[in-house]
């Protein structure tokens, strides 16, 4: 009937509304968990299971291409022990175990990142894209592991012991991370604004390939 006919103008309007809805949906998804680095002091979250290995980026686990003129991997001799004390309560034991598992993953990823950053392969050179894409993918996977780590403080003796244990590892990893970050920053600084934008693009593409939600949950004393 005449009443059920749709004019070309109505059809065009419907298409415009569909495109706007799709755009807003993708924008809200991006805002939900930005690809930018997390703040220096993230809000505490409760311990939750580490994502399964199947959720990793294949670029992280694949054998890396030989970096051009890459320096030899740094061998650290001051790595603290991840041995879990056997004289703590059940809650503390679970927290120690979860932290140790997460730190083991972070150390493995840090080893990969240290080996992946090329020395003489600029970030603006197309032939070097594969190297920098791998570095970005590893960095994103490290963020994913950190997001699921135990950060809830406690007032018990076990909790204070755990805090000292965790802080020792964070400081050690922080020293190594600062060294590799300085290498990345130097590579970006050498190419100016164009290099910074290219690096941001690599990070954004890594996130879009494997997005994950941002978590924020309350903590209970232990």
Question: What brief labels describe this structure?
Answer:
mainly alpha, flat, 6 helices, 222 residues
Helix share, percent: 55-70%
Class computed from helices, strands and strand pairing: mainly alpha
Q: What is the succession of H and E elements?
A: HHHHHH
- Shape, principal axes of CA atoms: flat
Low-confidence stretches: 21-54, 68-73
Number of DSSP strands? Answer: 0
Q: Could you tell me how far the N terminus lies from the C terminus, measured between alpha carbons in angstroms?
A: 70 Å
SS field, number of helical segments: 6
Biggest beta-sheet profile: none
Radius of gyration: 22 Å
The mean pLDDT is: 78
Strand content: under 5%
Protein architecture, described:
Helix content is 57%, strand content 0%. With 222 residues, it is an all-alpha fold. It has a domain at 88-211. The longest helix has 33 residues, at 157-189.
Topology at a glance:
Elements: H1 8-32, H2 58-61, H3 90-116, H4 129-147, H5 157-189, H6 192-209
Helix pairs in contact: 3-4, 3-5, 4-6
Give a concise summary:
The chain is mainly α. 57% of the residues lie in helices and 0% in strands.
């Amino acid at each position: 009937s005449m009443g059920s006919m749709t004019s070309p103008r109505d059809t065009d309007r419907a298409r415009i509304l569909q495109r706007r809805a799709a755009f807003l949906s993708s924008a809200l998804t991006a805002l939900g968990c930005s690809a930018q680095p997390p703040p220096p002091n993230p809000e505490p979250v409760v311990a939750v299971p580490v994502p399964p290995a199947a959720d990793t980026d294949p670029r992280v686990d694949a054998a890396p291409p030989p970096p051009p003129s890459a320096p030899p991997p740094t061998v650290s001799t001051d790595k603290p022990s991840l041995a879990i004390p056997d004289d703590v309560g059940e809650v503390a034991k679970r927290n120690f175990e979860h932290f140790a598992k997460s730190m083991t993953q972070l150390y493995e990823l840090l080893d990969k990142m240290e080996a992946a950053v090329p020395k003489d392969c600029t970030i603006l050179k197309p032939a070097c894209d594969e190297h920098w894409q791998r570095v970005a993918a590893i960095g994103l996977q490290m963020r994913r592991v950190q997001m699921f780590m135990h950060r809830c403080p406690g007032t018990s003796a076990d909790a204070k012991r755990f805090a000292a244990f965790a802080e020792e590892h964070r400081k050690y990893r922080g020293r190594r991370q600062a060294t590799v970050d300085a290498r990345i920053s130097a590579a970006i600084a050498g190419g100016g604004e164009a290099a910074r934008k290219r690096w941001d693009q690599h990070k954004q593409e890594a996130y879009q390939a494997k997005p994950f939600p941002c978590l924020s949950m309350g903590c209970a004393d232990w």
